[in-house]
């Protein structure tokens, strides 16, 4: 059984690590703590963390470190993080909050990564709507009335 002082030490080591380097992989964090991935995840949970929505979520940062833009996104080089955590959740929020929905290209420009498969899945699951407007698909709020208002603004 782990003592409270050991837990405190792990948190201190993580915080020191992230002061030097704002993002890391689980393997890097495990080496810094000289612990298993499972132990690292427990320690991260105590301090609060985010995983990247890019790179299959393999990068970690402390929740308090990102300075999110107006869309709730933070980029560290090629690695992307979202206030909404996952790519799926982020895409849904971006579309729902958009006055005129978003095209595929608009979403990819915002997210700075390929989102085709994710968007297709969200439409199939009815988490988002989609309508063809002047030859381009526009992703819309899943609620019919909200989607209609978005389409009106788009047109």
Write up what this structure looks like:
The protein is α+β, with helices and mostly antiparallel strands and 155 residues long. Helix content is 48%, strand content 19%. The strands form three sheets. The chain has a three-stranded antiparallel beta sheet. It has a three-stranded antiparallel beta sheet with strand order 6-8-7, sandwiched between helices. It starts with a helix and ends with a helix.
Question: In a few lines, what is going on in this structure?
Answer:
This protein is 48% helix and 19% strand.
Proportion of beta-strand residues:
15-25%
Shape: elongated
- In order across it, which strands form the biggest sheet? 1-3-2
From the alpha carbons, calculate the radius of gyration and give it in angstroms.
19 Å
Mean pLDDT: 94
In DSSP terms (H or I, runs of 4 or more residues), the helix count works out at 7
Give the ordered list of helices and strands.
HEHHEEEEHEHHEEH
List unreliable stretches of 5+ residues: none
- What is the CA–CA distance across the termini? 62 Å
Mind describing the biggest β-sheet? 3 strands, antiparallel
What's the multimeric state?
single chain
- For the secondary structure, the number of strands is 8
Q: Roughly how much helix do the residues carry, as a percent range?
A: 40-55%
User: Structural class from helices and strands?
Assistant: alpha+beta
Task: Reconstruct the topology from this structure.
Layout: H1 4-20, E1 24-25, H2 26-33, H3 37-47, E2 49-51, E3 59-62, E4 73-76, E5 79-82, H4 87-97, E6 102-103, H5 104-111, H6 116-124, E7 129-133, E8 136-140, H7 144-154
